[in-house]
Amino acid sequence: MNAQTRLSPLVAVEEAQPALSLVTPRRGALWEGPGLVGRDPELRALEDFLREARAHGAARVVCGHAGAGKSALLEATVQAAAAAGMRVLRCTGIRGGNPPDLSGLLQILWPVLADPHGSPAAGPLDAVERVLVDGAPAPGGPSWLPFAVLQVLESVGRAGQPLLVAVDDWDALDSPSRDVLTFVARRTEGHPLALLMTSRPHRTLRAALAGLPRLPLGPLGPAESARLLAARRPGLDAQAVRELLATAAGNPLALLELPAGAEDSTPCVPASSDRLASALAPGAARLPSATRDLLLVAALHPAGDLPLLLSAASRIGGVEPDFTALEPAERAGLVTFDGMRLHFGHPATAGAVVHGTDPRRCRAAHAALAAVLAPGSVQMLWHRSQAVEGYDPELAGRLEAVHAQALEQCEPFMAVRLLRRASDLHPLPADRGRLALRAAQLAHVLGLERMTRTIAHRALRHPLGPLGRLCAEALAGTGNGGQPPADPAAWPVPSGADEQENALELARITAPSVAGDDARAEALLAFLEGMPDASDEPRLLHAMATAGPVRRAATVLAGVSAVRHLADVPVRDLERLGEAALLAGDPLRALDLYRQAERRHRFHDLSDQLPRVLLRQGLAHLAMGDRGQGGHAFRRCAELAEAYGRRHHAAAARLLEDLVRGLRTGGTVRPGSAAELEAARHSVRSIDAVLAVGTACALVEAGESGAAWPTLSSLLADPRSRPAALSALVPFAEAAEAANASEEARATLDRIEAELGAECAPVITLRFAVARAVLADDQDEQALSGPAFAEDLSRWPCLEAPLRLAQGRRLRRRRQFADSRAALRQAAAGYTMLGAEARLARIAGELRASGERADSAAPGVSRPVAARDLLTPQELRIAELAGRGLSNREVGEQLGLAPRTIGAYLYRIFPRLGVTARAQLAEVLRDLQAA
Fold first, then answer.
1. 488, 514 in Cβ contact below 8 A?
2. Interior CA angle at 151 toward 146 and 157, to 5°?
3. Strands 214-217 and 335-337
4. Do residues 194 and 188 touch, judged by C-beta distance below 8 A?
5. Environment class of 782 (CB within 10 Å of its CB; exposed 0-12, middle 13-18, buried 19+)
6. What is the reported pTM?
């Protein structure tokens, strides 16, 4: 018998059952657990295979990479077949061994040989037994055995039960067994026989399986991977989930086996496990020494090109390898070569090939890489730090200095590792604590909660200043239900550069927790205002906007505007400035900053950082009333967030996308579930207020002002929701005017504006002016509308459109129909650009009430004889493209303009042509050309 293979006993035959299902199995079946998450299509395909096999025979090859779940699918099929009354014979190949010839066939036929009375083909069975067990030569030559095995299997299948032959890891069987099984697989048609085999893709074995029906098994998608982790490894924090999703890349075995949350060891090597290493790199230990050295340096430095890696590998073993050292790894399927760089077959393969490597050899590999990389570079110093044992203050200083370079290169995770390693290398406790605290602060910015807590506890073991200790204590409780940071009123005045830095970080950490506490928020704001020479520091401005977005809005916006040379500002600070501007009430400035941050992330190919930025862009568009661009940003955010496992961003984006849909159409806004809202709060802390304000505004769009008015009034009165509600001052005024509550609304506006005082943001001042103009009646129209019309609202269509709408309605009531139509058309153009579809139908009714006719732009005024009399050549081209149904983005791509620029053009074009919607453009232009 073959010691390298596992002998499986005959599966117990159960009473035949009428139903055969793998997707909805019987209670207690092996496939009922969470191990087959995301494999419903494959399970259905195997159900169909079993039905086909029971009818007239069939064969299938489940083909997938190591760890894809082939064995689990085969086991599910075996269980379903046994439950349906089929007899099962099976065998399993064992990788890494050298099995004797025909040992695989012996596994399959052993239950039949042990019970010869169960098979009617006694003659062939005896001959097969002599060949397999006794090693006798085949009586009819090499071609006899495949036919004999087929005859035996057919006779077993015809003995009363349909037969399933299940072969796991066909490609790991001995060669003669593989040949016989492929012979049988091609001849199952017309026999009561099902042959199911699993195999990995293999370049040298493809011809043997050519033509056989295959069931390819690809990686799980991000959502299915996250479900599998939640089912089989509950309790993982968000950071661990993100790391596992990225490294596993949809491989179920890697998702279940990769170590979670392991801190960097010294020397640093990619993580793996015994089982994962045996699956992904079973023969790595038997590769030539030069090949193993090459794979080791490739795993430690994946970005290196092959000449650099060969140079580094030569410094480990003392023998300079050449390009032929790569061939054994390629033949084993561990790596591929694109002409310049090595690529591991799977992200987890890098850890598998170095798993169990002696730490001294790993240090030697790091030292070799440091010797061949550019002197003074981030990667060179990192590898050098991994090769060092004990203290090295000179190297620690260089790591601390170069971490800023890593941040500039948009490598924040590397910056954390550099600071943490610098802390380990410093001999002085004060320096160790200072650097550990810096690493914890940066990890907190990146959302690495577990790492933040670990490093913060390490920092607390060393001497720290008063503010540094407060900061470390706050970080040590991150994401763990710890005590809130100390009251800012008790914070000492920072002394020295280190304490100034700790003060800014402590303020950044504390600001979210004091946002709803007036006393603590005022104490924090007073502390920040007392910090010298920090008025334009992004962290200070962000903390101030978080703690007091309304009370210090003007101060924050002045500080944001004071920041110069944005190209030199780190991308994280760009995002902080953008959020500060958004919270303080200037979404246009925020949008510009977030777009710069997006370009920076795309330049450095950091797509996993984009969901956060796109979500903020969508919020800025939403605050500007631009539903079309806002919905587009939220959709892009949701797609990327789901792809990169950012479930909290995805939840927030989906909720906000539903909100935008309601704002566009005036429809009902879907309320989020408790789980969705909880996840979304981790992405947007004010998500509840944003959704409440947006839902009330959707009621205004739908014309249900009676329900919207009291809701918006209460939201403006509540200090917690007021920052979000201030963007809805104009809808608040429209709802009040429709509900005959203009006087009460004007009193509310006066009270809120008096409370804001000098700190009222300029854009909020514009909103107050337009809201009062909307509430104006015939007696005080000039006094209330004059300030709004005196403002330049060209960059704020969300304010000009309702202002023109209110003006058109008043003019219509005075029976000044021509002027009313002009104002209403301008309003319709603005709302069209903003994507406010529900408004357009109501404005069309206002136009009809003002005497608008379908065949003319305005009664009594003839159209010009040609479109060129109304539009410039550029405007005419934009109108023609938009009339064909192209979106602003598509028009912009053809003309090399931004979508917002196209919207601005259309805003000017619509009133000139006398149209209120894009759909009217084609007909109007055709009529003008005909004229």
1. yes
2. 125
3. unpaired
4. yes
5. exposed
6. 0.74
